[in-house]
Inverse folding.
């Protein structure tokens, strides 16, 4: 047998190679201009200095999330679809690149690459991966046309993209088939798809007809491919590059979605300095945030995970990103709120639960844009009554409820009479127990403290409280965008906390926990922060606490966003509950994929217009498990579900208990 | 481009006031002071007018001891400058005294087209200041305004009255008093409040305003201020539902007749 070789420009008239490069030029120019224009949008001047920092860590992120698509494949159908199209595209690209090397470089040097066994492997692999490519596109078409998945937006651009890719894939095989039917080769079987097609093609009468068909298909194949490449920087296909860049630069984001950026330091900033905070224009975003917009492929995973979207609020995290993206692409720089790019209601509906951040396969944080927008809106101060009231309460009473400190004195007295000591009364203690505003002022949430005190005393843990010195951590102010008020409260708290002789802070409120753990560090507080579910878990493991009377009833557990997803404390509460009940069952959405109760991000403090409450949706999931008790780890979740239970009239169906209350009962 | 003067009063936060358990007098020391709610609505309205048509917004305030921090909050909301006077005699006052002192401060603020006031104050609810200022300056006045428009130098005001909505209009200069319904006052952020240190607060002595201490003597004096003591009867009825309904109806009829 003759040595197999790649027949480049076979059956094409002489001079096709030169013509093709001439035809390619405008497409290539369009591509290069498009890329240049995009880079200009991001503001490459500032980005340039960043590119070579922290390289190993960034490459590893890029490899895991962009190249290996760790999160993309977490969804079976969508993941399979994407991996097949992805592998097919890469294979076809490498295939074409090899032809270029073989024909336009090695040939001129008198060499050859695509011949012999290597060529046969090449042909076989390309035919195989081309099939994967077409299979992936078929799943895509099925999801969009047959299943009509709600989160997939119909758009002409997407239709054209898919049509173009399908055309390239199908014509590639047909060309192969035609070529082999006109010019059969001994090794034709290695191009197994094209070979099979060649028998069909042979049915077309007349070699000249087939040749004409071949030549016209060849050009249309080439032209569509050129056009597709040229359109990359002008379409969603740009994600080929932007997702690589976005995952690479993801180290520039705050380490966890629970940590907001600190744009200034209240104790360092010049009081009369010009103030600029947050963003309400694309130009006010950082280059990395603008790049993030461009990495969005409109896949809708964030939207599907978003509790505010599920509750029927105007918010969809995907649409926030997509709207900002098209604003950037339009080249304008309009005020988002004055020009109707975004609605204020969208921005205020967010519970900051970070489900969108967890869902995004390419490490975009829709939450980040929402929080930037909030900062800009709050800086302007034109807020509605409930938000104004909460912020005024924080300013005047240092708690979001607006209760004077005297409201909590009887409760503090009760704690003192139980034997709890204030930090200034003892020389040293292992833990400072931070009670939090919810439990200082709300009667139901006070039960959590009573249970915790009982547990701590039973286990012989030394702890103190701040008593009247405790004020709000500032979390609601920061999440609503009032950075100055947050820092005022934070700095006051840190000054007090630094004087306390305790190595660790014990907190049962996830929002306080997150603020201490992730945000106070920017202001110089370095204390170990322990959530009560973690401490109880440790006491049980160490045998300092024994559950002598475990519950017999069925219980289930709702992860709070700021403990589970955002701070990755998922195992400890489960260990505790499996010891506390013989019948601990899980809901479908749990751990880092839990579903917000609807109170986070300050939304607890104002009305969000919604079709259904997040808490009601979640409560129904809990009831479905058959559990008699829904166990919680957050005083705000507790209050939200309390309302949900009353709304649904489920007082006799399901009980709500904090994890500490369950444990205290089992002692 | 109307220039606007807004009168603001520093009052005690009445929602924090609690009566002394024995004397029933309100315990002022336990309550914080704040800018009277209605006055913030007046300021917000002034700022909105300025956003549309330009002009200058000045704040005036008089009281026994004006807290500059609270005045700075009004500047942080967007007022351009403040004119204030603190005098111990202003701890007792009536509508006439207040309006007299404020009118002198308004003159210090310079040229004006419109004075905006809250329709009443959070603590005393006298409803006097606005109308009296209009009398002093001899200009028209519109009270209880829930919507305000300015066009061609004339004011058009929607007033919510007991018998319905009145729409009135008048020329400027004029005095307008507003209620809580007219708008939601903006909230200055902490950074804005700090940045407002740049804006001027002019503080005056009595003599600067051409006033004497005698002129601060109120014509009306407060005799007594006491909380109403309300106590529930705590009557417990027992029996079957039908009997309970009967008994309850009896009591209600008896009580109604006794009135």
């Amino acid at each position: 047998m003759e040595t197999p070789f790649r027949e480049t420009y076979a059956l094409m008239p002489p001079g096709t190679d030169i013509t093709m490069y001439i035809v390619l030029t405008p497409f290539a120019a369009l591509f290069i201009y498009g890329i240049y224009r995009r880079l200009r949008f991001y503001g490459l001047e500032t980005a340039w200095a960043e590119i070579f920092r922290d390289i190993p860590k960034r490459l590893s992120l890029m490899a895991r999330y962009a190249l290996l698509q760790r999160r993309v494949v977490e969804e079976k159908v969508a993941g399979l679809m994407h991996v097949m199209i992805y592998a097919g595209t890469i294979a076809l690209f490498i295939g074409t690149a090899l032809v270029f090397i073989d024909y336009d470089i090695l040939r001129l040097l008198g060499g050859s690459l695509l011949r012999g066994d290597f060529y046969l492997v090449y042909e076989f692999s390309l035919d195989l991966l081309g099939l994967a490519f077409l299979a992936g596109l078929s799943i895509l078409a099925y999801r969009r046309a047959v299943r009509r998945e709600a989160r997939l937006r119909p758009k002409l651009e997407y239709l054209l993209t898919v049509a173009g890719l399908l055309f390239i894939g199908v014509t590639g095989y047909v060309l192969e088939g035609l070529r082999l039917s006109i010019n059969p080769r001994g090794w034709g079987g290695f191009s197994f798809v094209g070979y099979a097609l060649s028998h069909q093609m042979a049915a077309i009468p007349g070699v000249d007809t087939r040749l004409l068909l071949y030549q016209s298909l060849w050009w249309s194949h080439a032209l569509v491919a050129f056009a597709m490449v040229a359109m990359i920087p002008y379409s969603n296909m740009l994600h080929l590059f932007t997702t690589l860049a976005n995952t690479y630069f993801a180290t520039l984001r705050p380490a966890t979605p629970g940590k907001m950026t600190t744009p200034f330091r209240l104790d360092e900033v010049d009081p009369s300095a010009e103030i600029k905070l947050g963003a309400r224009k694309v130009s006010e975003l950082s280059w990395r945030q603008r790049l993030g917009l461009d990495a969005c492929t409109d896949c809708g995973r964030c939207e599907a995970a978003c509790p505010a979207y599920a509750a029927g609020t105007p918010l969809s995290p995907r649409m926030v990103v997509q709207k900002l993206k098209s604003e950037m692409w339009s080249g304008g720089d309009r005020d988002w709120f004055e020009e109707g790019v975004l609605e204020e209601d969208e921005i205020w509906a967010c519970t900051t639960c970070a489900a969108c951040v967890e869902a995004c396969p390419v490490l975009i944080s829709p939450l980040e844009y929402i929080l930037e927008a909030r900062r800009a809106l709050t800086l302007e101060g034109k807020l509605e009554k409930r938000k104004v009231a909460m912020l005024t309460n924080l300013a005047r009473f240092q708690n979001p409820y607006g209760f004077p400190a005297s409201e909590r004195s009887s409760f503090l007295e009760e704690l003192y009479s139980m034997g709890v000591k204030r930090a200034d009364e003892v020389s040293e203690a292992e833990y400072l127990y931070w009670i939090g505003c919810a439990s200082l002022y709300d009667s139901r949430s006070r039960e959590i403290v009573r249970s915790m005190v009982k547990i701590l005393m039973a286990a012989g843990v030394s702890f103190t409280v701040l008593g009247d010195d405790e004020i709000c951590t500032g979390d609601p102010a920061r999440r609503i965008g009032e950075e100055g008020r947050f820092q005022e409260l934070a700095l006051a708290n840190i000054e007090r906390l630094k004087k306390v002789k305790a190595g660790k802070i014990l907190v049962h409120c996830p929002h306080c926990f997150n603020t201490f753990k992730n945000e106070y560090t920017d202001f110089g507080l370095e204390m170990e922060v322990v959530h009560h579910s973690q401490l109880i878990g440790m006491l049980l493991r160490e045998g300092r606490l024994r559950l002598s009377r475990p519950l017999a009833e069925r219980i289930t557990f709702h992860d709070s966003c700021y403990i589970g997803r955002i701070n990755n404390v998922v195992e400890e509460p489960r260990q505790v509950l499996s010891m506390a009940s013989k019948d601990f069952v899980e809901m479908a959405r749990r751990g880092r994929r839990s579903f917000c109760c609807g109170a986070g991000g300050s939304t607890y403090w104002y009305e969000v217009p919604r079709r259904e409450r997040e808490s009601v949706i979640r409560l129904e999931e809990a009831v479905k498990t058959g559990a008699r008790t829904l166990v919680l780890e957050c005083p705000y979740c507790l209050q939200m579900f309390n309302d949900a239970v009353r709304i649904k009239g489920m007082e006799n169906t399901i009980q709500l208990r904090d994890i500490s209350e369950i444990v205290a009962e089992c002692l | 481009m109307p220039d606007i003067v807004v009168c603001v009063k520093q009052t005690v936060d009445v929602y924090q006031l609690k009566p002394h358990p024995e004397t029933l007098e309100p315990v002022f020391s336990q309550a914080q002071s704040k800018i009277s709610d209605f006055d913030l609505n007046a300021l917000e309205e002034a700022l909105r007018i300025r956003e549309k048509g330009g002009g200058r917004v000045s704040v005036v305030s008089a009281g026994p001891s004006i807290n500059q921090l609270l005045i700075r909050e009004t500047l942080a909301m967007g007022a351009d400058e403040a004119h204030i006077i603190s005098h111990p005699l202003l701890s007792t006052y009536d509508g006439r005294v207040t309006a007299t002192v404020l009118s002198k401060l308004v003159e210090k603020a310079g040229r004006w087209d419109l004075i905006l006031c809250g329709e009443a104050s959070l603590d005393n609810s006298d409803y006097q200041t606005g109308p009296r200022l209009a009398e002093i300056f001899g200009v028209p006045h519109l009270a209880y305004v829930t919507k305000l428009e300015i066009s061609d130098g004339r004011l058009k005001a929607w007033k919510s009255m007991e018998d319905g909505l009145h729409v009135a209009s008048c020329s400027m200069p004029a005095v307008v008093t507003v209620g809580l319904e007219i708008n939601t006052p903006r909230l200055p952020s902490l950074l804005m409040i700090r940045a407002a240190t740049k804006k001027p607060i002019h503080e005056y002595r009595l003599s600067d305003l051409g006033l004497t201490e005698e002129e601060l003597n109120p014509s009306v004096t407060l005799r007594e201020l006491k909380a109403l003591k309300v106590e529930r009867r705590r009557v417990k009825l027992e029996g079957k539902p039908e009997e309970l309904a009967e008994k309850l109806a009896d009591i209600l009829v008896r009580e109604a007749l006794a009135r």
